[in-house]
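Pipeline run #58 for the internal structure catalog. This entry was flagged by the ingest filter as a single-chain record with no existing model, so it goes straight to prediction. Upstream metadata was stripped on purpose; only the residue string is passed forward. Reviewer on rotation: M.T. Logging verbosity set to normal.
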Amino acid sequence: MFKRFGAPALLLASLSAAPALAHHPMESMALVPSPVSGLISGLAHPLLGPDHLLFLIALALVGFQRSMRWTMALLLVGLSATALGLWLPGLPGAEALVSLSLVVEGLVIVGRLPALSLIPAFALHGYVLSASVIGWESTPIAFYLLGLLLSQGALLTLSLVGLRRFSQGLPLSQKQLLAGVMVGIGAAFTWTALVA
């Protein structure tokens, strides 16, 4: 039963947050930048953005047959891109490109693009996560990065190790359906980012 309805349920659950919540909780909770609020923000940020959350969870469908080193390499790519975003902020259209990365991921799932196409997409996700902390002092930023490392590490481990077993049992038709749903979601999020 779970194999039949579990994957669509995961996709729908990840969409329960509106795209407007793709920001860190600092503003909504009226927190001042500090080590504690930086850590909370880093832990929560990938969970509050449906495009980030869906991208990380759906990596299970890609079929990476990699070791844990691959997961660590993806984390390093993402965190390096976050650091780059702190140093060189303001890439035009970055949020739209993040949403478009869901389209790329869907095309990878159905074999239209190579899996290595997700490395720049992952870097882009890391890059945009830096925008919310630009202007903070170095200590809260360090705790924010630690929170990102912990939350993204847990989500990556879940998707690439835990959910991979589940996704291997899905029939090709369900993977294609999920990939089509991701392409549609990515296109809708991209359109929203462009017209907002």
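catalog note: The chain has one domain: 30-195.
catalog note: Residues 141 and 169 are 41 Å apart (CA to CA).
status: ready for reviewer M.T.
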